[in-house]
Request: fold
Amino acid sequence: MILCVCFNSFLRKLNCFELHLSLVCNIMAGSGVIENPKENKTLFIKTYGCQMNVYDSDKMAKLLEPLGFILCNSASNADLIILNTCHIREKATEKVFSELGRLRKLKMEGFKSGRKVLLAVAGCVAQAEGSEIITRAPYVDLVFGPQTYHRLPNMVMEATNSRQESEINGAGIIDTDFPVETKFDHLPTDTKSSTSAFLSIQEGCDKFCSFCVVPYTRGTEASRPVEQILHEGINLIKAGAKELVLLGQNVNAYHGLSKSGKEWSLSRLIRELGEIDGLARIRYTTSHPKDMDHELIKAHAEVPQLMPYLHLPIQTGSDRMLKAMNRKHNVAFYVKIIEKLRAARPDIALSSDFIVGHPGETDNDFADTIRLIMEIGYSQAYSFKYSPRPGTPASNLEQLSDATKSDRLQTLQQLLNEQQFSFNRQCINTSQKVLVERRRDRDGRLTGRTPFMQNISFDGPIRLLGELIDINVEQATEKSLFGRVAIKEQYRGHMIMNKNYSEGRKHA
Ligand code: 5AD
Ligand code: SF4
Reply:
């Protein structure tokens, strides 16, 4: 059986959020100026899941710019609708089919009025379900997986030129290969970037945790070559990025080849990125404890741009469950890594993923998880009820009741929320370096992130967007901070960034 998952961890990882890309882009594609720009067409992408999917959706939009597609923020106005799906937890497939059911109406209305609306399913559900999607929803035009979206312009042209036989017929194009060439060789150059930009450096995973579909779907671990990453990084910075977030399902297993054919580790890559003028911040996600080597821990002490925040999932605080999950380490090993990280960077803020209710988890195992959380003290964390994924080892075992999972999740989340609130409260009356990322539509306030990944909002002039400024923190809630621009910032002209810029070493 073919499975697919959409990324792992991180997940804001996957707090299965849905993200609507709603930027209006320039039709001059990053990959070149269009010779004969077609009449503008509109594109709507709905992105489910992790940052990796957000990265992929952004690239899809850029790939389609030369065909005249500009992004819009509503499916009802779009000529092409892409659902970029996630398969990491249950019900993902059903969610996609019910969304397709709603979108079918738009396609039929378009047909009746002589307008062709194309419907595409991308990402991990597409990879996992393949032709089953067309069988159940014959009005879908395109189904393609995470490794083939560089072929999207051709697929879209083919679908555009195909004859739509009836109001419920789609073009039925399916591409769920794992091609030999990598999509990264075909992606357009970024000409415009957000202040904080994702940069995918690695995909896939060899760890085979009992519960996880990633190794079956995204494939085994593969690292992009160093030069390609540096090139993309430099372009993103030229295009306006001040922060790079290095992405990978198992990012600290990175081992890409350099020009001279040597393997570089993640720490080596981070040090090299730290030499680029204009790059103020570096983050990476998601990491596995087993790949948290000495050099990477040392980089946290020595690379000023590397932010004092680490998402390092442990999933459970029970040795018995770590074994059942095939995590390849025990609790003591994880605690030791945290100690080393804190010795290297005393203010480092920590995050994790937790799963409750994995088959075999007892009350005692769960109590161990609670104990570990109290011992470590997280600045934030993500937690999920175990969800059986077809084809993974744990899905064949006896399952716990949903009531047990819900009870445990509630207890765990209450503790994590208390810890996050307490971490945020400690920032009140401190000054934090904030990278200003956007202006909120709702109230016009500026928002950004502290070095510790906290969201913070404040009033300020638009010229501060993209700047790294001091904010005095005045209030805290469980999820965010509120502050005021420090007086000196109000009189300052433009921020001068340089590669030796160091920040945020002191928390509270
Ligand atoms: N059930 C619940 N949570 C899962 N995750 C991955 N697979 C499952 C599953 N089958 C969680 C893990 C991982 C995060 C990205 O998603 O905590 O770190
Ligand atoms: Fe999935 Fe485990 Fe790999 Fe993370 S380390 S992607 S949880 S198999």
Q: What stands out?
A: Residues 132 and 313 are 33 Å apart (CA to CA). Residues 402-425 form the longest helix (24 residues). DSSP finds 14 helices and 22 strands in the chain.
